[in-house]
Amino acid sequence: MSLPLLLIHAFPFDQSMWRPQAEFLRARGHRVITPDLPGFGAAPAWPREQCSIEAFAGVIHDVIVRQADGRAIVGGLSLGGYVVLALLRKFPESVAAAMLMDTRAEADTYEARAARLAAIDMVRQRGVEPLADTMLGRVFSRHASPALRIEARETMLRQSPAGVMGAQWAMAQRPDQTSLLEHISVPTLVLAGADDAVTPPSVAMGMHTRIAGSMLVQIANAGHMSNLEAPDAVNQALEHFVATV
Description:
The protein is built from eleven helices and six strands. By secondary structure, the chain is α/β, with parallel strands linked by helices. It has a single domain, classed as Rossmann fold, CATH 3.40.50.1820.
């Protein structure tokens, strides 16, 4: 029996963002697990001071133990990728293979961290809507359809302000994971949208060169949310990678 696949969502989305991939992979006989991180989807929010990427990795590890007999092929996009890296550092035995999508290993720059802290204040004062409107212009390329943008905005607006603020805090405080890359020994896919303005393809290339034996895939006509903008291409990349594991 093949290993289960566990997919970790991006910020500020929930597990529903993986619907195109989950339906595709399940139709081909794969078991797919798509949990919500704390404060997103159906998962209760945590107090901000309890939120960290390492704590989120602990949540995912518990899911792997309970639902995947302790080992899975684990993928994450953006925030989800940060959690995959923390999982590889803290619980490497639970990761049979890794899929790092539109993400990075570096910690935030001073400017990026300041922007996250400012976003926390904005959400506290005005709710999630202004953040969602700002992010729509960053996470999609010019190829994204109006219908996709509307659907993504609705998904963002469903998330709890406490969850959004907690995740921003966790990302702002996350440690640099670059030194981990050279020690990753499991099969690894590094995937990025060719038009990703948040984590450009050069970032993916840098990760690929540091992870021995990794597979690099660039998705044409897709921005940061590559799995939503080009689901067919991402589905094919995931299926091909899983077949090699």
